[in-house]
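Lab notebook, bench 4. We co-purified these components, and the gel suggests they stay together. Before we commit to crystallization screens, I want a quick structural picture of the whole thing.
Request: model the full complex, all chains together.
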Amino acid sequence: MMKAAIDPVTLATPFFILSVILEIVLARMGKADARYETKDTAVSLGMGLISSVAGLLTAGAVFAATLWVYEHRLFTIPMTAIWAWVAIFLLEDLTYYVFHRVSHERRFWWAAHVNHHSSQHYNLSTALRQTWTGGVAGTWALWLPLAFLGFPPAMIAIQKGVSLVYQYWIHTEAIKKTPRWFEAVFNTPSHHRVHHARNAIYLDRNYAGILIVWDRMFGTFQPELDAEPCRYGLVKNVATFNILRVVFHEWIGIVQDVVRNPRHALGYIFGPPGWSHDGSRETSTMIKARVGAEPAKAAAEDAREAA
Amino acid sequence: MNEAFFVQLALSAAAVGVLVAIAAWAKIAKPAGPLDDYKARGLFEYEFPGRKLDAVWVASDGAGALAKSGGLALVICQVGDGFAARQIPWAQAISASFKNGKLCVDLADIAAPRATLSLPSWPPKNLTKDLAA
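Here is the predicted assembly.
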């Protein structure tokens, strides 16, 4: 969005670097469960590096829009009040849930988000596999209501940074399960492994940023099951390490589909990923239905595990 | 963008180089061995559940496989220590270029442009009239 006086992501960068080294070294020593493939790691880290530059291209417009909305705010919320930080923590996290769900369930926004899921690995470098086209996709607009409510833009930017930094450490197989109370309330490595898995039962689940309670409330929660080890990546995995193909393939796919089928343009742009006018492809819902991994079954698995 | 930004970017780029080098040194990729007929059929079953396989050809180096399933060719190719799968019309697979023991299949997908499989011959010599159709 914009640079605040305190940028949690910049502050955390040395921690990102040291923790990746630690995960690799511990895995090498056989002390941690982590897999790294050289080209995959290069793509993940390269995407993270360039995403910070790509974000600057739209930063001005995002900043101007946020400032304009803030100037027309309903209330003036003080940055120094503790209640204000509690409120923005909850509201920003709810906004993140909405953003993340839209980014998975509508192809236009999936095109910007898909590359974060394009690795067949799940390690700390995967967390840094960030989008280059998020600004163009316009999902930043989902945070504008916070400015309209009266949260200062700097406060919103700081909380967004906190959320991003929180979500870094959960991209690991090295941590199996955290204490039950923590798993119940917070997004954890286990919950987020499910989110990155391509197994039918795990598709489009666990959209949480920091609090997993949103998924529990809105029916998108799925626990990690011992009987169903996570297979990471996409339903149709990317078969190249060409970073440009990884970043832009879904956008190009949308353009190709619209050019070939202009009468069905809206479906190909705003339909769920995998939608096709002739039913020749499969959406997540269709895949789940085909293999019998519908929400009812997921809920039953959830209940069984909770018991 | 000021000078500090470019210094930070340059340092981050250097850090990326160091991390990739450490990942290469560690040799901790997934221990998936080369495909054989059994593994390939398992992978086809996972990627294309319920599809009947008329015939399967596994690359001699185990880095991929191709199967005929009715009018479709199912293709699995190695990507790093993982695999990617696509389906294309069988006619497209049959007409794929074969040179120096390498079959180069155009997968017609921006995210999976082509698959290269090491095979003794193509079209395969054991391709019966029924299968060739």
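The CA atoms of residues 44 and 129 of chain A lie 4 Å apart. Worth comparing against the SEC data before the next meeting. Chain A has a mean pLDDT of 94.
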